[in-house]
Design a protein that fits this description.
By secondary structure, the chain is of the alpha/beta class. It has helices at residues 16-27, 46-58, 62-69, 113-120, 156-169, 183-193, 218-222, 226-242, 244-251, 253-262, 264-278, 292-303, 308-319, 346-349, 368-371, 373-384, and strands at 7-10, 74-79, 82-89, 97-102, 133-138, 175-180, 198-204, 333-338, 354-360. A 9-stranded mixed beta sheet has the order 1-2-3-5-4-6-7-8-9, with helices on both faces. Strand 6 (175-180), helix 6 and strand 7 (198-204) form a beta-alpha-beta unit.
Length: 388
């Protein structure tokens, strides 16, 4: 790893001109003509987005959320030529286990805000102090204040190597890691490349490596239980009707980036669609699962840092990694929390992971850390308890 190993304190301080520019752009949105009566099946409905954009422009208070974020110790360091931003909250319990939390897309460090207190100070949140963690939450390179990326090549393997270096710089010789969505790619990779120091890997919203690869035969389907078949159906539906964003970001992220970088309404629609489709239950509006202001704060971390394009590039990098997907199965103990909108299936996950813990939930969705932080926190504690 090149560059200085200095770790510098960081505070978010967005120029007022950037907020004025955002409000001005929202006020001048060119909405286009939407088909009357069109629902979510065609994308985000115009009436819904207009209402949310107007709330963002006139009622959402960035300064209040900026102040909340700034209550959490934040830092910057340079790793492999890239600025890495991270939250770092040490537990009052001296024997706490360090825990690296990995967000996904279209998420950010905002995903984990409601879990920081219970994880670091269980004694103060009705838990057992023996379950305490020192928590490190980096913004993935290319996302938020860790972006934009300055060069190509930032795939999940490079991110994992950077995060292993981050934990070394912080003096953590043994640690656990957790991640959802794209974080559920990085966390297992950390278990592979840093197996001597990673005590365990916990994932939610897990896909690659935790689902079947290729077609599942009718004979194989007949051996699945009802929950597994429902997840297989959900995966098939995503492939057929929900993967367009993936294909675009994995093939032409730069073309997409111009529109989303120029139009806050466009960026809002691109992200909020996923909050609608991936939260539980997906038939409801996203605000039923995630606080509207929290969702907008997540969007702001893309808008204010000009990282919607570099975050999309992560998909391109991962899909153009060549043979580096073909890794040896890790031996690191791995735990899975499968929420109601997830698609991970244990029998397939066990083919490429050392699964020692599995929890199925009938609620919660893709953004479990935001939707059901209580359930995810409890599952993380349960998984790591015998691994400390």
């Amino acid at each position: 790893m090149t560059g200085s190993s200095e770790i510098r304190p960081f505070r978010i301080d967005v120029p007022e001109a950037d907020l004025e520019d955002l409000r001005d752009r929202l006020a001048r949105t060119r909405w286009g003509a939407a088909l009357p009566g069109a629902g979510w099946e065609r994308g985000v409905p115009a009436d819904y987005l207009r209402d949310l954009a107007e709330y963002w422009r006139t009622s959402y208070d960035w300064r209040a959320h900026e102040a909340e974020l700034n209550k959490i110790p934040q830092f910057l360091t340079e790793i492999d030529g890239q600025t890495v931003h991270f939250l770092h909250v040490r537990s009052p319990e001296s024997d706490a286990l360090p825990l690296l939390l990995n967000h996904g897309w279209p998420g950010s460090v905002v995903e984990f805000l409601d879990m920081i207190g219970p994880l670091t100070d269980p004694r103060a949140h009705g838990g057992d102090p023996a379950d305490a963690f020192h928590v490190v939450i980096p913004s993935m390179p290319g996302f938020g204040f860790s972006g934009p990326t300055r060069e190509t090549g930032w795939n999940l393997g490079r991110v994992a190597r950077a995060f292993a270096e981050l934990m070394s710089r912080l003096g953590y010789e043994r640690y656990g890691t957790q991640g959802g969505d794209m974080g559920a790619f990085v966390a297992p990779e950390l278990g592979r490349i840093d197996s001597g120091r990673v005590a365990g890997v916990h994932v939610n919203a897990a896909t690659h490596g935790f689902i079947p690869y290729g077609e599942v035969s009718d004979e194989e389907k007949a051996g699945l239980d009802d929950r597994e078949r429902a997840r297989l159906d959900r995966l098939a539906n995503w492939n057929e009707d929900g993967s367009a964003y993936f294909q675009i970001q994995a093939t032409r992220p730069q073309t997409l980036a111009y529109g989303l970088t120029d139009s806050p309404a466009g960026q809002l629609a691109w992200i909020v669609e996923k909050f609608k489709e991936w939260t539980y239950p997906s038939a409801d509006l996203p605000e039923a699962a995630v606080d509207r202001d929290r969702m907008l704060t997540d969007v702001m971390l893309y808008w204010l840092t000009d990282t919607i394009g570099s975050a999309a590039n992560m998909y391109y990098e991962n899909m153009h990694m060549g043979g580096s997907w073909d890794t040896e199965p890790p031996t690191t103990p791995t735990g899975v929390a499968a929420f109601a909108e997830d698609i991970a299936i244990r029998r397939y996950a066990e083919q490429g992971n050392n699964i020692v813990h599995w929890s199925d939930f009938d609620e919660g969705g893709h953004f479990a850390a935001m939707e059901r932080p209580d359930l995810l926190t409890t599952d993380v504690r349960d998984f790591f308890r015998p691994l400390r």
